[in-house]
Each structure stands twice: as C-alpha cells, then as structure tokens.
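ingest -> validate -> predict -> emit
validate: passed (alphabet ok, no gaps, 170 aa)
predict: started
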Amino acid sequence: MERKRIFAISGVKNSGKTTLICRLLEIFKDKGLKVAVLKHDGHDFVPDVPGTDTYCQLQSGAYGTAVFSAGKYMLVKQQPQISEKELAEFFPEADLILLEGFKYSTYPKIEIIRKGNSAESVCNPEKLMAIATNLDAEERDALSVLENVPFFELDNAECIAEFILSDYFR
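emit:
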C-alpha cells in the first residue's frame, strides 16, 4: 500500500490556518489533486443542525448516523477517541491529506506566525518544515526557531503549495 501523504498547517488560534488551507485547496484542485482536510475541535463540535432527522436521532440515543445522497455522505459516530491516522483511512483515494492545527503532531508541518497574533513558534520543532508569516525581516530574525527552516510570505499560497508538493511528492 502506498504511503499516505499527510501534511499539517499549524499555528495558534486565529493565525490564518483555515484561510491558507482554502487557498492551498484551490491550487491543488487546479493541479488535479484530490485533497482531504482533517481538523480537530477541542470544543466537542455539533455535527448536525438542530431539527434535522439525524440530529434528532443522535439526541435520542443513536451512537451513530449517516446521511447520503448521490454524490456525498456524512457519517457521525460517537467514539471516545480517534487519531488523525485513523481518520485518514476514510480517504484512501486522497493524494494529500492536510491537517488543520496539530502543532504537536509527528507529521511534517508549516507553521503560521502572523503579526499581532503570535510572536514565536509553538510547534514540535522536529517536524517544522517551514514558517509562513507576514513578519518583516527584523521580526523574523528575532524568532527562536530552528536554523535552516525556510520562511514563506503568508500571502504567497502558490509558493507554499509548491514547497509542499516538491518536498513530499518526489
């Protein structure tokens, strides 16, 4: 079985992870890649809209529900813990799986450090492959990050996409 390509876009809350991921998704889609995104929610998200059949079924005691149509499905399952690796198995046809967050994971990652939002790296340094930032050169020099970690302009999603593809799709 081919190794699943998993890459994280990490950073503190409100650093711009979702914005960057959405821009990367557009680029990857234009290149013909199938990309899935996994996101952890530490606040026990509500997976359905109150009033729908599946919401009512979950509230009434179902441990899981599924709704599907001709082109998609949604599965909700009450389970104490599942890892990102296990969730990735739901996407066997994906060329790439992006993780949103997961700053302490063992997966390779780009960390977003945004002016006025975060001042230093908070990620697992062993897997920090690059930093995407809008800090100026002087502010970048003040960061205490690993040597040889490249910086990318936060608004240059095309360059970030190429970095991900060139390093991880050889």
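The two ends are 17 Å apart (CA to CA).
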